[in-house]
Amino acid sequence: MPEDDVFLALANPIRRRLLQLLAEGPRTAGDLANQFDLSRPAVAEHLQILRRAALVHDEPQGRQRRYHLTAEPLAQVGDWLHPFERFWRERLHALADVAEEDE
């Protein structure tokens, strides 16, 4: 299932950080690799997983590849999480109530 690829890709903190970086704008593979204490091949492997999950796409630019965020698959995650929002809202309201009591 394509959704499974997205969830598996998001399960790794390195890949989540790569997506955060790409949310700021397109970057080269080298620039992305410089943001981590990992080898370039290790970062390239993470980018490949994100590409297979359709969370990023790349375009050749001379001898480099420029990576772009593809946000559409993240909407699937949002759709899946939507039914659980009520639990967060309830907890946030409870936290707000406690904070107001302390004032």
UniProtKB/TrEMBL annotation:
<dbReference type="InterPro" id="IPR001845">
    <property type="entry name" value="HTH_ArsR_DNA-bd_dom"/>
</dbReference>
<dbReference type="InterPro" id="IPR036390">
    <property type="entry name" value="WH_DNA-bd_sf"/>
</dbReference>
<dbReference type="InterPro" id="IPR036388">
    <property type="entry name" value="WH-like_DNA-bd_sf"/>
</dbReference>
<dbReference type="InterPro" id="IPR011991">
    <property type="entry name" value="ArsR-like_HTH"/>
</dbReference>
<feature type="domain" description="HTH arsR-type">
    <location>
        <begin position="1"/>
        <end position="89"/>
    </location>
</feature>
<protein>
    <submittedName>
        <fullName>Metalloregulator ArsR/SmtB family transcription factor</fullName>
    </submittedName>
</protein>
<dbReference type="Pfam" id="PF12840">
    <property type="entry name" value="HTH_20"/>
</dbReference>
